[in-house]
Amino acid sequence: MALANRRTDDSPAGTPAAQAPSSTQPFSFATPTRRLAAHPNEVVVGADACIPTAAAIKSDPGTAEFTTLELTWLQGGGEQRLSIYFASDGTSWWADSITTYDATGEWVNSPAGQRWFTSPLGTPWTGDLDLPNLRITNMTVEAFLRPVSCDNPTSPIAVVAAYPTIDGIAGEGLGFGGRIDLIDTATCTPVDPSPYTFTAIVDDPSIAAINEPMPTSTITTPGAQPDGSEAPPEQLGRFNLSFLKPGQTTVRVTVTDSAGTVIGTVTTPITLRAPSNVTETT
C-alpha cells in the first residue's frame, strides 16, 4: 500500500519489513504528532489480509493544518503501503484521503470528497473502517497530537526532531531534508527559530553528509485556512543530508541562542541501504 501521486515534503524512504499475517496480532505505529493502533486486527485490501506490525513509518510532519501517516512493508514478495492524509481547522481534525498500494502494483484511493475520523483536537477516534480499498477493525487513530515535551517539560523550550528516524537509500543525488521544531513548553506553541543557530553533525560523514549551507536555518511554510485565506507562515528549523553509502550512523542537531547558550540537542538515527528493485523516492 502506498502514496499515490501525492508527494510529501522531503519524507525519508522507509525500510519495509517482511510480515507473516496473523489475525491475533496487534499493530501500533506512532510519530511525535500522530498514531494508529488496532487489536486484534487484520488490514484487508481486496482479497488480501495482512498485519503490518513491522512496517516502516514514512510520514510528513506537515503543518498545523496538514500531516500524514504512511506505512510501508513487504508481504508475499511485494511491497504494500498505507497512507492516511490528515487535515485540521484548528478545532477539529480528520482524514480527507486514505490511499493503498498492494503487492500487485495496484493503486487505490478512498472515495473523493469525504472525511473520516472527524474528532476534536486532542481526542482520538475509535471504531471500524470499511472502505472499498481498506478495512480495519478495532482501530484507534489520532492526528495533531500535542508534543510529549508539553506534558513533561524539562526546559522552557523543547527541541523536537520531526522525524524520529531517518531511513533511505544511499546513492548519488539521494538525500533528506530534516526538520527541527522549537516548542514553548508552557504554551505548547511553536517558537520562531530565526534568532537561534542550528548546528548539525553526522557521526560518520562517510555514510551521510551535511550539505552546505550547514544547515539551512529556517523556512516558511504557508497553509490554508478553512475560509480559503492564507494562514500565518510557520517557521521551521532545517538541515539537509546527502546519502553517500549504506550503513548506520546518527545526526546530532544542537540549538543555541544569540548568547551561545545551548537550549537543546536532538539525536536522530540514520539507516541507509543499497538500491533495490523497489522504486522509492527520497
Describe this structure in words.
- Helices cover 1% and strands 49% of the residues.
- It is an all-beta fold.
- The chain folds into two domains: 27-143, Porin, CATH 2.40.160; 148-273, Immunoglobulin-like, CATH 2.60.40.
- Strand 5 (56-57) and strand 6 form a beta hairpin.
- The longest helix has 4 residues, at 148-151.
- The two termini are 17 Å apart.
- Residues 1-23, 214-226 and 277-282 have low confidence and may be disordered.
Order of helices and strands: EEEEEEEEEEEEHEEEEEEEEEE
What structural class results from the helix and strand content? mainly beta
CATH topology of the largest domain: Immunoglobulin-like
How helical, in percent, are the residues?
A: under 10%
CATH class of the largest domain: Mainly Beta
Mean pLDDT: 76
Number of domains: 2
Uncertain runs are 1-23, 214-226, 277-282
Number of strands: 22
Coarse shape:
globular
Topology:
Blueprint: E1 27-30, E2 34-38, E3 43-45, E4 48-50, E5 56-57, E6 66-75, E7 78-88, E8 92-101, E9 107-109, E10 116-120, E11 125-131, E12 134-143, H1 148-151, E13 157-161, E14 166-169, E15 175-184, E16 189-190, E17 197-202, E18 208-210, E19 218-221, E20 234-243, E21 247-256, E22 262-273
